Amino acid sequence: MRTDRHSPRLDGAEAVADAVLYEGYLLYPYRRSSAKNRVRWQFGVLVPPAWAAAHGLVDGGVAGSAESPWQQTACLVEAPDTATVRIRLRFLHLQRKVTEIRTAGGGYRPVDRIEVGGRTELSFDEAVPREFDVEASIGDLLQGRRLDVRVPGGEDVEPLVDGRGEPAGRVVRRRHPLSASLAASAVPCETPFRLLRLEIRVENTDRTTAPDSPRDEALPRCLLAAHTLATVDQGRFLSLLDPPEWAAHAVRECRNVHTFPVLAGEPGSDDVLLSSPIILYDHPRIAPESPGDLHDATEIDEILSLRTLTLSDAEKREARATDPRAAAILDRVDTMPPEVLERLHGAIRSLEPVRRGGDAATDPPGSDAQDEPDTGTVLVGGTVLGPGSRVRLRPRRRGTDAHDMFLAGRTARVEQVLLDVDGTRFLAVTVDDDPGAELHQWYGRLRHFRPDEVEPLSGEVAAP
Length: 464
Prior knowledge:
Distance between the termini: 62 Å
Radius of gyration: 28 Å
Shape: flat
Helix content: 10-25%
């Protein structure tokens, strides 16, 4: 059953799933002429079975970068027979975009590139997202459920007119039909507590692709970036990365092929699962600073955005003519406010400002930190240090950043006192006589030292 139904429980998980869906869809500099954009669709590619056999694609490992006619998810769920499991299959359907020019006789012929009325279009491969849902009780899954997936082919025609409003060409988008299946089943595990192994197998069932076809001809009948999302009510999924000890043996019996399941959604929740061809940790999330997808592997928003801004007008025209998603990236980067770009420079997620008076839950008895009189201060050698304090740097010889050794003996100004999640305090400083000190302060790019790595000096530095 196809669904357009919104599910609030999947909101956070679908943001990550969308990143998986479009991972590598189009890489910087987002132009068709870029060599790395000529070989695409690298993850979760489920190919026709006869084509896979002819090309020796029999790998059974977990890596989703290996092409295969099927993928299998095996995960663990605690739930009664009356609990409902919902499984959503998601993938991309390749769409051939062909530009055609109008001939003198009134017909059309394919061309690689067309320019009409100030608009440029290039022939290119796009993709359409597809979703299908299966819903069943645990009791039903003990008997097994199967969904046959059928996606019809299609053709969309977009006319192009010249400056006089006369037909000059067109953009034709064609899709081949797809066929696949999703089989889901539950099997009791041999554990001291009730536990079930949920297995989800997705297969490409196409029988029309010639085994000797080149990859480019087989791709229109493949499931691209295939992955699944699952939810359970009246129950919970167990982490395969950090399971309870009593379930360790059941985890070893889970066989995941070309995909791997992790807990998804908000941290601490356990009723949503994402099985991805890209291996992730539990509760993955999109960086909150990211204003939108850039489709690039191990995406670094700041550098990609800055480099996109440096593209020439001609390069931007080519990128816009390549794909609508590339045009959307250019539009977003070109209009990005400075404060949004500034947020992309970096974030410290493991540190937070010291709270007033310390924290009894993290500060060990008798430590100097318990006696801190003010917010954002730390007691070092009988001297209270806070923003504006001057210190001499004495980095440890072992267990520290090797670059810090070059700062031994230098003086610095304390900008912040930070508290790590394990209760460790750090002094964020700017080094005196550093010509880039003001820039580092503006960006928040500071150097961090433990209290035992600094020596208090008398006097303070006026705040900039």
